[in-house]
């Protein structure tokens, strides 16, 4: 399930409903990405799913036991902005799609390859 910014609330409601109805403990998860917020390369999973269009993607953050959405917006020159809850990230990939740089401006964190 993918969505646009216009229907973000409906997408999140649908995603949360599906995830609650799923037996997470048994490892059966509906379509979505597990994003471990302690591993920066997990954000690359979101970029692989997006291509060139802005997308809203279902995610599960295990540390927080939270189900929600990630907003990924494609920018110029292979750059992306990612919003996961209140966390905003800026990503840059090379021509092959490898993650070169991921920044979390609010935390003053920059991870570079």
Q: Strand order across the biggest sheet? A: 1-2-3-4-5-6-7
Shape: globular
- CA(first)-CA(last) distance: 31 Å
Unreliably modeled segments: 1-5
Helix content: 10-25%
Please count the helical segments: 2
Q: What's the β-strand tally? A: 7
Order of helices and strands: HEHEEEEEE
Task: Report the C-alpha radius of gyration, rounded.
Answer: 14 Å
Fraction of residues in β-strands: 35-45%
Structural class label: alpha+beta
What does the main sheet amount to?
7 strands, mixed
- Tally of separate domains: 1
Assembly state (oligomeric): single chain
Roughly what is the average pLDDT, rounded to an integer? 76
Provide keyphrases for this structure.
single chain; about 110 residues; alpha+beta; 2 helices; globular
Quickly describe the structure.
With 113 residues, this protein is of the alpha+beta class. Helix content is 20%, strand content 36%.
